[in-house]
Amino acid sequence: MFNIDFIETEVLIIGCGIAGASTAMEAAKSGLKVTVVTKYSKLEESNTYYAQGGIVSLGKGDRPELLKKDILETGDKINNPEAVEILAKEGKKCVEEILIKELKIPFTRTSPDSLDYAQEAAHSRRRILHVKDTTGKTIEEKFIAKLKSFSNVTILSDFTVVDLLTTPHHSKNPSSFYQKPRCIGAYVLNNQTRKVLKVFSAYTVLATGGCGAVYLYTSNPRGAIGDGYAMAYQAGARIVNMEYIQFHPTSLFHRDADSFLISETVRGEGARLKTKEGFTFMENYNQKREMAPRDEVTRAIYEEMTNSSSNYVMLDLASYTKIDIKKRFPNIYQTCLKYGIDITRESIPVVPAAHYCCGGILVDTWGRTTLNNLYAVGEVACTGVHGANRLASTSLLEGLVWGVRAAKDIASIFSPKKNYRVSDIHDWYYPNKEEEIDPALINQDWLSIRNTMWNYTGIIRTNKRLERARADLDYMQHRIDRFYKEARMDSKVVGLKHGIQVAMLINHAARNNLISRGAHYIKP
Ligand code: SIN
């Protein structure tokens, strides 16, 4: 297959977390020929895999209106009310039909007939379904197993999407300029052969997840560099609200622990934040204390850290809970123990980390972007559900609901008619003299991007910091672009090009919004 330079499919899905996988599953059920591409060699690798807390549903005595109210309040009421309504109304049904009935996710129960609902910050009641503290991993593994059972689904793992294919942009045919721009697939790099394949598709769905890894500290896996935002931007789709980067208050602070989240459900079970000296402090910031919206908790921690010149604060669960910690949080317990911290007896050193992008590629209620035939679902999309800040545990649900919606929409309008000829589309251009990449250069560029974003476009922003970041990122982008044109194709080079673009998008949005709101905070 990989000596050929193109393939054709009906639906191309880029990314394989809950959003991509649910789109793929629904599209496959309608009989469409689906191709899923993931840059990872391990199919399950995605932000979804690392989600600990859970997925929002409706708890006992709960109603969609109550969930809607909490989402709007957390989002500082700049959410899209129509999208919030859809999530609140359709969410529970999707969870029951797809996750519980079809995929048989073994959600934690209090008894054989009752599901256990966890509490997280800014939720007015307990409504988070979870599989202990490995909810995302369990969901992801079941989805992948299911996708493998469809004969009309092809999964290409270890393939990096380089660019979206669009007409007229990639067309050699001058008459294509009279047609509306549209997405016809993607240029996809085979990470093994380092050759670029054209994947043509009637519909393309971006489900590439978020971009936390453009920051120094993040709860996301290191691959979450925002490929989808960068490619959609290059292709001309509209991107909005990128300044609203949500920082999770508590990731494990340890020299050897890269991006390990300490779930908010730990605070939901009573854990208190303390200074290194052992004093609680959240009561000085918000009467909801540890259960205040996470942007407020994050800023309080940041302030405490700054005032005491400390790199972390402590999270104490052991002194405040009666639950069986090992049983409720086996993953967090085991991971902390690996680093020498016994959370049943001692406090956990924690630091805030970039966690979730509330903005993204603007989509409608069916996941359609502003570019024809291109859809976006999950974190990379901005449905407007989250507004300026995301309510905890709504992201898996949003990915699921919009994944299903996008697939249904595609199936209902699908037509195999093409308005281009494959031979009219440019092959990938390889430079005459391809330069081998020097990993030291890539590492240094990433360090610069991540530090610049953390310090100058991070939790607390000022005009001066943002301006400084713009100048530094601008220079880096110029250098990376030049390097990209000459380098031998490689997923690391592609990642760097996408990463710097995403950093620029976040910085640009932050500089252009002088109003502090939700996750975007500008100190006057
Ligand atoms: C957590 O478990 O704290 C993360 C949940 C989320 O961000 O939705």
Structure notes:
The chain is of the alpha/beta class and 524 residues long. Among the domains are: 104 residues, Succinate dehydrogenase/fumarate reductase flavoprotein, catalytic domain (Flavocytochrome C3, Chain A, domain 1, Alpha-Beta Complex); 72 residues, Fumarate reductase/succinate dehydrogenase flavoprotein-like, C-terminal domain (Methane Monooxygenase Hydroxylase, Chain G, domain 1, Up-down Bundle), CATH 1.20.58.100. It contains 13 helices and 19 strands. Strands 1, 2, 8, 9, 10, 11 and 18 form a 7-stranded mixed β-sheet that branches. A 4-stranded antiparallel β-sheet has the order 13-16-15-14, with helices on one face. Helix 1 packs parallel to helix 10 and helix 3 packs across helix 10. The longest helix has 24 residues. The radius of gyration is 22 Å and the shape is globular. Bound molecules: succinic acid (SIN). Succinic acid (SIN) binds next to helix 6.
What labels would you give this structure?
single chain; 524 residues; alpha/beta; Flavocytochrome C3, Chain A, domain 1; Methane Monooxygenase Hydroxylase, Chain G, domain 1; seven-stranded mixed β-sheet; four-stranded antiparallel β-sheet; 13 helices; 19 strands; 35% helix; binds succinic acid
How would you summarize what this structure contains?
It contains 13 helices and 19 strands.
Tell me the number of helical segments per DSSP (H or I, 4 or more residues long): 13
Which range best describes the helical content: under 10%, 10-25%, 25-40%, 40-55%, 55-70% or over 70%? 25-40%
Q: Quick one: biggest sheet?
A: 7 strands, mixed
The chain-level mean pLDDT equals: 96
CATH fold group of the domain at 250-353: Flavocytochrome C3, Chain A, domain 1
Q: Let me know the CATH homologous superfamily of the domain at 250-353.
A: Succinate dehydrogenase/fumarate reductase flavoprotein, catalytic domain
CATH architecture of the domain at 250-353: Alpha-Beta Complex
The count of DSSP E runs of length 2 or more, i.e. the number of strands, is 19
Structural class per helix/strand content? alpha/beta
Distance between the termini: 57 Å
Low-pLDDT ranges: none
Global outline: globular
Work out the strand percent: 15-25%
CATH class of the domain at 250-353: Alpha Beta
Gyration radius (Cα, Å) is 22 Å
- Chemical compounds bound to the protein: succinic acid
